[in-house]
Amino acid sequence: MLNVYLAGPFFRPEQRDVIREAKTLLQINGCHVFDPEAESAGIWRGRAPHDCSSDDRRAVLAMNERGIKGSDLVVAWLRGTGGDFTDQGVVWEMGFASAKGIPVLGFYVPLRGENVDSLNLMLSESLAGLAQLYELGEAVMLYERDGCDAVSLFAHYPVLPSEVI
Prior knowledge:
By secondary structure, this protein is of the alpha/beta class. It has one domain: Rossmann fold (3-Layer(aba) Sandwich). The relative contact order is 0.16. It has a 5-stranded parallel sheet with strand order 2-1-3-4-5, with helices on both faces. 46% of the residues lie in helices and 13% in strands. Strand 3, helix 4 (88-99) and strand 4 (104-108) form a beta-alpha-beta unit.
């Protein structure tokens, strides 16, 4: 069973819907998913980070670091905040995983009218692969079977295809 850390924003209802869908796709394909929102719910207790103590925030950071270190793969939602922006927390999680030698598979949700013509060089070149949300199951199966090389061949786009616009 592949241990996957699922990185993505979960602050708005539509973001939580995408994260739930990604988590379900990963679980259907036999992955054990570390979901930072679910794991830290007992600390946040419905509060926003700025309403929590620094001890609470440090506890969440430590929990997420352990989750990443214990994963075989980080699956990161790119452009989860809409437009050209990837959530700052996701960028940090990707960098931490890369520094620990843990591959990162990026995924995105193609939206009409969204400008997704390119990713930041530092993000795109650190990815083991990139897939659309509905391709996550297949991409993770390829990774589990054949490793990073298969995922890279599967869907690595330094520039996202124009047909998703």
